[in-house]
Amino acid sequence: MQSQDVAHRHSKTAAGRDVGVDQAEAALVEHYPRLVRLAYLVLPPDLGRGRRVLTAHALVQRALPRGRRRKSVIPAQSAGRDGDPGYAFVRQEVVRTALAAARTRRGRPWPSPPPLLPRVWGLRLFPRSGGADELALEQRLSVLSGPARAVYVLRGLERLPDSGVRAILTSAGVVRPEAALSEANGVPAQDALLCSPEFDPCSLQARPTDLVRRRQHSKAALAAAAALAVCGALVTLPGGGWGPDGAAAPLYAGNPAAEAALDPGKLVRIAPAAWRSAARTDFSVWPARGTLTGDRALLRRALAVWARPGETVRVSATPGTQTGGPAGPPQLLYAGDVDSARVVILYDGLRIARYAEPRDGTVGAALDFARVDGATGTEASALVLGRSDGNVRYLTAPWVRRAAQRDLMKPDAAPLPLPVTDGVTAPLASPALRTGSCTSWNVLQLTGPSGDQLHTDLGELVPAHLTAGRPGAPAEAAGAEGLRAWAPFACSLATQRSVGVRGVNAWGFAQQPLPDGSGAGQWACTRAETWRGGGTAALAQFRTPGGTAGAVVAKGADVAACGPRDPQVLAGVLWKARTGDWYLLAAGGPDVTGIRASGGITAAGQGPLMAVKAGQGTRADLKGTLKDGRTIGGLR
């Protein structure tokens, strides 16, 4: 249960505190991933992702007080991590050294790494690539000064108030902290993105370094000659060597199955009419479409980059999706020109891989992956071909008869027909690329053998399927009831961008008359299911009468609530009446027979609804009793 008037609370030290090395070490070990993420985000992006990773780890590992017996003093500031002064000290040191590194980087060439810097030989390590939102945020942060970048990260990642941020900057030696605070205000707050895999230097991908350069630096003539002989043999393997593979990394292994997977002549191609007689309706019966399905050079580059993405290739994957090469020849779904790029889409039975390169070369090639195991019917009805200028184009399944676009926030408006040519839709506005206020939410409406269905772009290769109704037996959201159910809560879909969402269901579980007689509030639960199984998210939302959009009042991650395994929910919110009085409103699903509140307020009521007077800022724990006697807690 949440109230929008309750601000973050931070326990502040009245004066500096002594922190022993043992206390600081315990905090460092416990919060190591968070501290390394903090250092990574504050360090200058132009350092390069691999170097930033190693430097971030080095700064955190060197943040302990010097000497086993010596004690250090932290400044009076928000302690963070539940008031732990050890964590506050280590965080202060990380910010100070990261800012010092940024000043050094800006003033003169980067110095030699310190002796204790973690070293990795023969591999390049870097975080997993995110989506368009993460890339845009990285670009915005790159133009900020080091102190302003630290302000943005401390606000968003650490949730510190400006007073706490100002104290950290002052202690770190920043001369004008107010200027840094003002500069950081120019970048819109996107706190959730700071926690994405794009900025996680503890969850890494590995790629070989420049093998040719390493060979050139070998001092042993015999070893160098052997390396040249091996590399020369690899270059002459079937596949044409480095040149025809475009942006792919150099070959470093030979394997018959791997070589077959790289042969464009062995790509699986399905006949255009095969889906009509097939028992399955999934990606395995999609035909190959596009004007470049016969371009062997393009297909060879796509396959080679999938197997060995080079340094210039931007790789992204939905959470839980592997990015390794295919085990055998994949299936070709599309090859053609999309806006200003050449695009190839492949399917290996478990994943969709999308390769894109500029029309005028291979520099700037991108490789995206999405998990689709178990996709069938509706879930295998569309794929994202490309995004540009705020729009998205889809490749639709061969069984799709018509396509249209509609605004999910306008349930009574008719859908607008969307032209489809050889399975490719005309562009439509993508909510995944929009920033700023949410005044509309465009979705793709497809008509197939089973009727109309809705899909929304959440920044991934596979659009999320939208449904509405009680969990376990939801209906398509394209119906009149589904559209009305989704309209007030469409903007909440923005919280599910780039997290591997398979489908989202909206369930209006209660209507609650308000105590001041102003009408009835609408309760709904939206639940997002993912392709990987874990990472589900359930949002309890409440809309007051006349409101255009609902507000998220409770959130549960990896819970069964609002889902097919446990179609139950209980949530509450503090609501201010027109008279100025505050009330605790609580509601449960139709199977709830009673609600109890404890903690900041004690109350009980019969049935699935409860409304009692409460003070502003009151917090309460909710319990509900079901028809079968079970007890459920409030969603949180």
Task: Annotate the secondary structure layout.
Elements: E1 17-20, H1 21-30, H2 32-42, H3 49-61, E2 71-74, H4 85-107, E3 123-127, H5 132-142, H6 146-156, H7 162-171, H8 177-184, E4 204-208, H9 211-216, H10 221-235, H11 256-261, H12 274-277, H13 296-307, E5 314-317, E6 331-338, E7 341-347, E8 351-358, E9 366-371, E10 382-388, E11 391-396, E12 402-407, E13 416-417, E14 420-421, E15 424-425, E16 428-429, E17 442-448, E18 451-456, E19 464-468, E20 475-476, H14 480-486, E21 501-513, E22 520-530, E23 537-543, E24 551-557, E25 570-576, E26 582-588, E27 592-599, E28 603-606, E29 609-613, E30 620-626, E31 631-633
Parallel strand pairs: 5-9, 19-21
Antiparallel strand pairs: 1-2, 3-4, 6-7, 7-8, 8-9, 10-11, 11-16, 12-13, 12-17, 14-15, 17-18, 18-19, 19-20, 21-22, 22-23, 23-24, 25-26, 26-29, 27-28, 27-30, 30-31
